[in-house]
Amino acid sequence: MLPKRKRIALTVLALMLLSVQAVFPVTSMEAAGANRVMVVHSTESGEIDQNVRLLDIVLGHFADDLEFRGAADLQAEDLKNVTHLVYYGATADQLPLAAKEAILSFDGPFLAIGENADQLRERLSTITHHGMVNIDRVTRKKGEAEAIVEYPFYIHHVTAAGEETGTVWTGWNGDQAHPLFIQHGRDAYYAANSLFGTSAYLLGQGLWTFFGKEPAGEHLAYVRLEDVHPFSDPELVRQSGQYLADKGIPFMIAVIPVYTHPETGKWHHLHENPALVRVLRDLQKAGGSIVLHGYTHQYRSTETGEGFEFWDVENNHPIAGAPDEDIQIKDRHDFATDGEYEQYVSSTRQYEEEYTRKRIEAGIHELFQLGLHPLAFEPPHYTMSQQGYEITADYFNLFLGQVQLTDENWQVMNSAPYPSKPAMLHGMTLLPETLGFYDVNLPDPLVPFRESIKTMLAIDDGVMGFFYHPYLGLEGLNRMIEEIEQVPGLKWIDLRQMSPLVQTDAVAVNSNEQGSLIVESSWSDRLSIFWETRGLFGFVQVLMWSIATVVAIMIALFLLYTIQMRLTLRKRLFKERNANG
Fold this sequence. Notes:
By secondary structure, the chain is α/β, with parallel strands linked by helices. It is built from twelve helices and 26 strands.
């Protein structure tokens, strides 16, 4: 007989195969027309870096399979089964002869980005390079006056000729127009070196033309109620969720199961606030989707909701030790041999894996016990190492927010303009946050919100994702919803309609075609979960539960003894009555 986890997984897989859905173009590609994309890159290190990972999350909307190769390692045979070829020159370099010949001989669609494209004139014959130019705004078409982006950045100054050449984006320096994304037949060129900020969104729009895909013509949106934890006010959470439910808007609730007091370090669990649990259950029934937003949303002595959890922000490094340790991050020069250094790196990675798995599983299990079923994951402050993403993919297939692009600096993050399934997320689908949140520290929190909506309106099928803190009351949420409801063709994302899959060794959560949740577990697993999570409460609470259990058993035994004595006494009296006639 198959183990419980395999049986659950097979059941869920069968249900997923039966419920073929076409929520987004990226999820409805026919297998026969799969896009197998090769990204060839020239980076300073020669390895995949933050720039290439950002390209990964943009391409992940269109690519069924993504592969990466440094220009120095590319050979013609590497392109044998590739349908689309992308070359990204993140830094100026001389292309190796083998790489150049492979690119020039490739017979499928080709996209060049940034530097070194002038070395591929035979392939991009309609484009002439003239150095660099500073632009201060970008419009969708050359004739449009309204700017989509209004800030200065450098691009390659190029001119394009030919009847088949079209410009998706145009950059402007004063009244001088400069093509930014150029499409000529099957080939294309994007003239910016950097993809950070809105540049990734501009590239993303051009990819519709490059891949020859037709957008659905809708603007996707989601709203997330953020940082709901055991100390959250149940009534304020209820008001925000019910407001959205009454408007027929599917919504998400980012839940933190444990609140850690910053001074005492005491853990307060969600079950200790039964009123909040009831509210969350009611909102889940009303169409709200629970999102696991970390386990404690903190590391070391920081407060829940403010601190990080899956990143050591003090050392700006992946988690390498226990929160109560004084962790000193070491480099190669701290060790006598390569072997000692590699052993150190291996041990820190092993600790991070155990730490991450324990917290994710504990979060899923504690919510599950309370009848709350998380359908997606959002790391606190969007920070997580590359290994962290790989681990998370073992438990979730839906991921929210932005993506940290390097293990060197948590602040280097960005997002795609639309749903994406990048290679770096190991099978998880990213639902990006693109509009920010209601920042009460601003004179008018809606000013950046409106500007972001304006940018996203220029991106076909882009996601307008944002979040709101329920403790602010309804006024700000109402203002945001009124603003975004003016967007034409708005379509709200419902996680239940995206075939979510969440699983551990003990539980599995999925949904059917109608969006109803399918939850599986076993009684034995529930018992193990009960004791596993109670073990996190601390010695005192375990002791109190133990005493209460012993007292309950003693009371039960006393009652049984009393009943038995009464029955015995009745029998004795009955016998004596019969004996005396």
